[in-house]
């Protein structure tokens, strides 16, 4: 968001348990002229700086309680004002020399890239924002999103959330397609179509499990020839309930289990000479990995939990190889 106004009147709803972090910043990143709203020890601080001079006002109460609070601030020719929940107000005086009409800068919500100002947070607060307004006009669009996730409800269940913007996690870096394996997990989808798991960079050695129109299909090639099998669950996968899914290979038989439904097919004897370890992805096929032979490229939308590979649990909330818009914080409870 870019702005250039003679009087600033901004407001935003914030929910956080953070005691420290940047919420709003506008100005130059060297600190000559800026307006910043941030948290310090749970209290909001509005800082205004220009040409080496700084003015700060701070809330008396702490607002890092995990509840929604409306924070509004305005800057006019003579005053700065900070208002909380429409009731509690803090004010400060501006000298007549303050160049309130001369700042033309981008607005940052959260952390600011390459910020070089002492005594204010360089990192973002952790929490949620909504209803951001400039001049009482809602700001619905942004120029750039740098890894910001959608807000989740207060009530969360264990799991990993995948969103419309698309994202994936690397479950394992050394997955072998042509040996016996079992991959099991629980999903609660919000779309009938999407990639669940994928491994492999060419059509002669790959494994993919995907949903298409509510039907689950496992397809692959263990080096000896392609296979494909599908299961149509008795219950809709988008019914708000968790559904168990497993794909496995044992003695050249490929099994696909969805809740209590099972299908299987025989695969040709794998060629061990073609074996090499591959990353195992969940959520989508990475953009830089071309898979034109797959019938879909849709991202998974929903929640993942209880992931196991060869009966070994994967600690999803400890994963670090995450790409795109994925939240490890939990899944919204239905």
Automatic annotation (TrEMBL):
Residues 1-151, 158-331 form the Laminin G domain. This is Laminin G domain-containing protein. It comes from the Eukaryota. It holds the Pfam family Laminin_G_2. Gene3D superfamilies: 2.60.120.200.
């Amino acid at each position: 968001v870019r702005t250039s106004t003679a009087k600033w009147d901004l407001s935003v709803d914030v929910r956080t348990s953070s005691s420290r972090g940047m919420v709003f910043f506008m100005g130059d990143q060297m600190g000559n002229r800026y307006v910043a709203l941030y948290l310090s020890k749970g209290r909001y601080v509005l800082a205004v700086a220009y040409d080496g001079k700084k003015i700060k006002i701070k809330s008396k109460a702490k607002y890092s309680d995990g509840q929604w609070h409306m924070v509004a601030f305005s800057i006019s020719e003579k005053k700065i004002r900070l208002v909380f929940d429409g009731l509690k107000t803090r004010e400060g005086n501006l000298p007549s020399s303050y160049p309130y009409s001369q700042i033309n800068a981008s607005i940052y919500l959260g952390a600011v890239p390459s910020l070089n100002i002492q005594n204010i947070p360089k990192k973002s607060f952790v929490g949620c924002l909504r209803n951001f307004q400039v001049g009482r006009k809602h700001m619905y669009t942004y120029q750039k999103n740098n890894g910001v996730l959608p807000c989740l409800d207060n009530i969360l269940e264990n799991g990993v959330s995948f969103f419309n913007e698309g994202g994936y996690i690397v479950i394992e870096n050394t997955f072998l397609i042509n040996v016996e394996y079992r991959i099991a997990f629980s999903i609660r989808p919000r779309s009938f179509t999407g990639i669940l798991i994928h491994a492999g960079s060419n059509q002669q050695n790959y494994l993919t499990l995907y949903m298409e129109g509510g039907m689950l299909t496992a397809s692959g090639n263990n080096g000896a020839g392609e296979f494909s099998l599908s299961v149509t669950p008795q219950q809709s996968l988008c019914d708000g309930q968790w559904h168990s899914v497993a794909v496995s290979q044992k003695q050249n038989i490929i099994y696909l289990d969805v809740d209590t439904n099972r299908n299987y097919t025989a695969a040709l004897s794998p060629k061990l000479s073609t074996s090499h370890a591959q990353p195992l992805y969940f959520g989508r096929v990475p953009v830089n990995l071309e898979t034109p032979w797959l019938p879909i490229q849709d991202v998974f939308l929903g929640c993942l939990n209880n992931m196991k590979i060869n009966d070994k649990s994967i600690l999803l909330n400890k994963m670090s190889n995450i790409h795109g818009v994925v939240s490890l914080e939990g899944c919204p409870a239905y």
